[in-house]
Protein 1
Amino acid sequence: MQLVSEAKPAIRASVDALNTAARAVFTLAIFTSAFLLFAVQPMFTKMILPQLGGSPGVWSVAMVFFQALLLMGYLYAHLSTRYLSPRTAIYVHIGLLLVTFFALPISIASGLGKPPAEGQAFWLIGVFTFSVGLPFFAVAGNGPLLQAWFARTRHKDAGNPYFLYAASNLGSFAALLLYPLVFETTLRLPQQSLGWSIGFVVLALLITSAGYIMQTTSTNQLAAFIQPTKVAGPKKRLIGEYIWLSFIPSALLVAVTAHISTDIAPAPFLWVIPLALYLLTFVLIFRDRPLIPAKAVNHLVPILAGLVILSEVIQFNILLNCTIHLGFFFVTALMYHQRLYNRRPQVEHLTQFYLWMSFGGVLGGIFSGLLAPHTFNRILEYPILIGLVMLAHPAVLRASRKEITNETLPVLGLGLLVAAGIYVFRGYDFINSGAYLKYLMAVMSIVIIGFYVHQLARAALIIAALMAWEISPAGIQNTSYERSFFGVHKISLEENGQFRVLSHGTTVHGAVRIKNPDGSTYTGPVTPLTYYHPKGVLAQTLQLLPARANGRDIAVVGLGTGAHACNGMKDDRWTYFEIDPVVVKIAEDPHQFGFLAKCAPAAKIILGDARLTLAEQPTSDFDYLLIDAFSSDTIPIHLLTREAVALYISRLKDDGLLIFHVSNRHMELQSVISAVAHDANLAIKTRSQAARPTSLGEPVPSAVVILARKPETLAKFNEEAGWKQPANKNVSVWTDDYSNILGAIWRKYAT
């Protein structure tokens, strides 16, 4: 008895020390787990991008996959804490981590073959499942699981462990911030994968320590025994709110990402920014005193929605445009996540709370990432979600029937009056051209932003403006859309109907004249326009290519409208490599653009990613190979690497030309190609055409780089023709596992 009595102070001191360490150990474990969880997303997405042409759709599908696996992780955490004893739960989880260790390092699973021509999303889900499914699942449930473990300790904060969720999202935010700034620019993919494996081992040790603390402090004989009391779980209506309040921000996350990737600045490094902001809202909100007052957030949501609408009318610069869209998404996520936190249950039902949150998030991701691309021919999910945000605004939900009637009926009446006016005056050019719509939208946006009106009236105006923009008769008559996994392709009539234009996002990919300036039907020859104008740089590369008695073998990566075929000679043999079947359908339709039908009816079109399909072609086959596969301003990095250039050169004849079209609004890419050329000991020349056109009938400014095995092959590409030797900017060679997008952006804006 004396020995036991003497041992009690030592045991008590040990337990007190563990209690003191509990907060630090659990916080660090959750932070590390979240860091690894969100570091693996951009890392593995970067691994798989080369097989799907750098499409923004890859990120959307990745988001849905990771959200679904996160739901499974949360379900595992819920079942573990509900049905397993603490000791068993610890052993099971450590066993899961041990099994996962033998599945590392992370790499692309073999055996699934090449991406299919259709159904890329489902193929991609299979690749994610077999390649990264187990490691992601092993860390996915740690957030709620460790919070539940912490709640079972005797720490003074055990009764309110929700602060740990903020630590979790801070780790996620840090990973997404550091990946493009540090990891991507300094580490190659194998090094990133190895670093992730080391981090996983550290995480396993932290979780083991957390489990030991939980088991020791909660079961020690010296700890006060507390008889657990049953607390009623959340009712069905509250569960429905958890799902709804998680659905909207999650769906909006994918929709905003698709919008800024397709319509504003399509660059992969931007994909992580909306997700980082999404996670930051949890950091700011999941605390007893939110850092941003809810009243201010609720007031900002409709104002920023008005700015979003105004940005569709007035083309702001890229920075302001991105700021507006991301700002609206950020404050909306804050508003919904604040309402989630206010409705959180008692700690006994913590894992159930996170489970329903995750379920709502998965539904939102499925809606925007999988259903919408197959349902809508353009990114309609974004305006639909903006409308839902306004319908579920707290001011709308709190309003009485009388307030709704008084505030919204005037807006409805005014809308009907405007619609009647449009119908009556529909024969006027001002109405037919759609010019009225821009003025109407601008006025409505200014009222929403700058005038004091009731939040109900603002919500009604926003919904009315969105509907007017999407169902405008002028817009429907002059524009058609085709949507695929690789983006939204818009065919529109421009410059008073003189030109039919194909564009993807913010970049024009082809145009054809269909009317003369006086409005009469154009009957002249089919002439390439925009980048492929006969007086442009790309046309010159074909003009300076020597003729051959039996014709030239010409290959182009990136079909567009097929306009370049009309810059060739009669006997040329054309091969196009195109990843998007929708683009092929548009280019082959003689009633849309007609370049292929008129100039290269026998052109061979090979569907699939160019790196994969070119590798299947015979070596030394082409006289000319043009790489022009940059959808909008997205850069398929795998088409600019050392390995890619080696493949291209091997498919050229000894005196063949390799041409890169590297025009880009936001990145300087000439030095990237130059670095690869010097690395491979290739001859190189560049030319940039800077004059801005005043009409679609004039050549568009372009930057072109040309490579060859021998300098004499480029003899005609001299200074008299406008070509020069590029300056050496000491850029590191891009490879299949290393690139530096931020460096390319910095060079563009620094010059």
Protein 2
Amino acid sequence: MRLRAISKTFRAGGMEVRAVDGLALDIARGGITGLIGPDGAGKTTLMRLATGLLTPDPNASSATVHRSRQQRDPTVELRVLGIDVLAEPMRVQETIGYMPQRFGLYEDLSVRRNLELYADLHGVAHAARASRFAELLELTGLGRFTERLAGRLSGGMKQKLGVACALVRPPPLLLLDEPTVGVDPVSRRDLWSIVQAMARDNGVTVLVSTAYLDEAEHCDDIVLLHRGRLLGQGPPRRFSEAMRGRCFHVSAGSMRRRALQLRLSRDPAVLDVVLEGAGARVVARAPGALSLPALAAEVSDLVIRPVEPRFEDAFIDRLAAAVGSGRAPAPLPTAATTSRPGSGASREQPSKATHAVRPGGDAPPIDAPAIDAPVIEVSGLQRRFGRFVAVKGLDFEVRRGEIFGLLGANGAGKSTTFRMLCGLLPASAGKVRVAGLDMRRSAPRARGRLGYMAQRFSMYGDLSVLQNLRFFSSAYGLRGEHQRARIDWALATFELEDIQRERSGDLPLGFKQRLAMAAALLHEPEILFLDEPTSGVDALVRREFWQRINALAESGTTILVTTHFMDEANYCDRLVIMADGEVLAAGTPMALIERARRPQQPEPTFEDAFIALISAHRKASEQAA
């Protein structure tokens, strides 16, 4: 692939966005190239340009004046497999394989019928189909599901079927736009095995974009984009090696991990900090021994040890420099400043459940309210859909001020459980008490004390940011000055003031997530439900999001969260892992990591622990069947 002077501008709702900005890039034939960048970097636009689905802008710096569409700008060059994309877009589309983010599976057709349909579309000879289908079904592990409707597949299986359909005619070049978004770690591993096998055994060149930075390590080459421009290109190791001497693991047994992270994030020597294992992973602003004198004076058991750099460290470092910030996003105030009507508290004295700070003020104190009595109690919870039992006798409890994780593979029953806990779906059996209320009898009352952020963007896309906040605040019963104060708080805290008049459907994904969380917090809920809130967003947005969640938990709000990013499990105080509607394992992140420790794997990650548990469960289920 060869690009020269490639730009693409979009205009919507009065905004002009340069998605790709004068890009010059070469991608070598063979192997796997990763397309990495934050939301709005131009990854999807670049892929659509390469497939001929979009046409680049004329080069604004060219001296040539182009008076019609037929006139070509000689400075703009876009070639794929030696084909001039601008002159022969259909030829490119007939030659390559392309799987967009929302791949067009026909959910009312079976797995086999989807393959046959795409074989028809690609002109695959009938004589060649049987062997090709058999190869793809074995490669994707879908051989036992050929007659199942695509709509009844799990998220990971749908993605595998999408890859199979894109490969139904073996292409010399395969473009995959975030194929692993929203799928569990086991399915992600399986998908990468498929991609690597195609590149290794079939000689397919692969260009893949991804929001999971650990997946960059699977690539032979990395193209790092930001705001449509090239920030760097090379093997993953070249990026990570530049961070050697700047990466550390910091722990202090006498300090809670979230408190440790907050303290570290305030230190001027620290660029980035995320929770990891029993402590925190720190990227220093400069190479050399990390000195934390203020923290060392406060705790006697502070341990700082260097660790191997990884691609994610380099990504955060380069992005922080590109956006002109001296550090990665710092903790932001997130909780409420106004009290609920009738609470007896003034605006200057927030209620205990939202003990927090003003927008723009100091972060929550370290000595936040202690975790105490259960606010969510689940006993024998079941949900049936006809003969299918989606949730089978769940038992767990969540305490006030706790971040509680609900994890599992696709189809484990997490979202169904979430909807029952929120009162959006009645339980078939069992007991659920939320905020002291029985969800069978008092679901409407309980919902007034809950905040819910759905897995998919649930705001009204045709309404502006401000109109959405007005609508949802009214739906929560806010009126008059209190409503205006809460909307002002949401706009300021989530940095939505400058875009409050913009159409919500036109916002980048990161801003959509901010808006959705702001709407969920307008009525100052005691409990916040977050269903895969960071799915599809980049590492910078995920960090910002978790800083807000941590601040809420520190202020006493109870958080229940599902996620497919296993590193986010480290932010949970406790969690359960579900499989086939049942609790497979429960405990603290460190306790579950310890279960995966083996001589051959002395330092397992939480993802290692998750994959080991799910894989063992699936193997046992297959043997029992």
Protein 3
Amino acid sequence: MTYRLSIYPMIRISPTVSLFLIGLLSASSGQARQPSDPISLPSHSDSKGQSPNPTVHYEMDITVHPDRHAMEGRQRLTYTNTSPDTLSRVFYHLYFNAFQPHSMMAERNRELPDPDPRTAPRIFDLGPDETGYHCIESLTQDGNTVSHRIFDTVMEVTLARPLPPGGQAVFDMTFVSQIPLQTRRSGRDSREGIDYSMTQWYPKLAQYDARGWHADSYVGREFYAPFGTFDVRITLPSEYIVGATGTLRNPDEVGHGYASDSLNTDPPAAQTDSLTWRFYAENVHDFAWSADPDYVHDVLDTEAGYTIHLLYQPDVAEVWQTLHEAAPKIMAFFEERYGPYLYPQMTIAQGGDGGMEYPMITLVTGRRSPPSLHGVTAHEVAHMWFYGMIGSNEADHAWMDEGFTNYATREALAHLRGQPRPSHAGALAGILNMKRLGLFEPLNTPSDWFDTNVAYGVSSYSGGEMMLDMLGYVISDSLRDRFLLEYHRQFTFRHAGPHDVERVAEQVSGIRLDWYFQQFGDADWELDYAVRRFRPTRDGTAWRATMTLKRLGRAVMPIDLQITLEDGSVQWVHIPLGVMQGHKPVPEDWIVAAPWA
């Protein structure tokens, strides 16, 4: 008699603890435990976490002067303290201050062994008229002048009067800014000739949550901000075409493809030296826009009711027009798998320095092949789910955004090509390679604290993708897919953290999962199981096989064991962990062994 044995997972990552399971095939077997169905889950109004009610309401009036790369702005910010704490100060982000030769962003890129080539050395060489900055000319709270102190990209404001729980304050600000030459994400005159990629461009209030203020300096990574509404007026020379977060409130005034068909043949833009564009957005935690006089503007209406805007230069038109078919298919796929798209429009604009997501708009470089353009579009649009509608703290837990987005991107591209569901083994291979090189850092390392850019990229992108893929192994692919829909339902327009991911996955599966998220999110443990001994013995006319499995590493996982007999028949055995307090649903012909303690 011969046997072929396969153990899943067989992931080698530094041995510490050994446990034994003896006499596996003689262990108890039985029906798979099924989670309760349907599952009773809380709605937005009764689930824990921050209220979906808006915390900030911005009214901004911006005038851009292209001849001197300057921007003048007035901002009225109504801030509601939704926390249980009385606040004596608030913090703003002044992101443009990062684009200077000796900012924290520049200094960090001097120290990293693998600095971002889009930033270094370009940021070190910015001249006086190429740097970026915000100059705050005035700031009041409810009409009273308040003092402020600026350090790099963070402004601390001492309140004229404390803000109690549930209290509201109105901050009026005037500011002037120099728009930097684009190095990373934001600025003017991109390498592809886009005049303005305006991301992280305005004084933005920081997020205050149960852990306090998140007033992190901008050194090149990720963002975190309160949800709210934006009413923004942008004045530019009339030849500019603009795409932005939110919906355009005055389309017939600006034309440029936004007005009704009858007006587009003679756009109002030709009748005046400048135009003021008014955009309005609800339930967003940021506002971005791009502008260029050479943009081609295509408008796509979808069956779901939202509009897709494409903005690109004429020299890439042939490739970008492939998005007429691809973009709606990508978004429809995401809606089916991850929940409805709850914004009125999506803008895909040529700009930036690669691909970067903001609510209702993404900026991507345009000179690409069709597969490359479809790939970056799928990734950035997926962020509208795992960044836009679910506002996780990217600065602390980038894997929840970038990793889930990476997972969704791979799934969407396979669907777009008419292929079956893809393997995510590449994400795991990336993690293992970093461990072999000694460069791996845990997924919950704050984004700006990684020792190398490559470690950040692998942990955040591949790590989060791996977490979702292996979650399907732990609770089943079908329940993992249900989890993603439920995660969207519970945390739309709210800030989710790692424990929220864990909690929703537990509710959907009926399985305890803290052990899973702790050891793969916070730790750097080896996961390694082996067949230690296989001993067949004769029992009368039959044979009895005794198998011993050993855990070589510190990390634990349930095991799916495949046994192939000499006659070609296959027997699957599932070995759950005791700490799971249950197990995933398995086919009826599987053996479910006693839990491994």
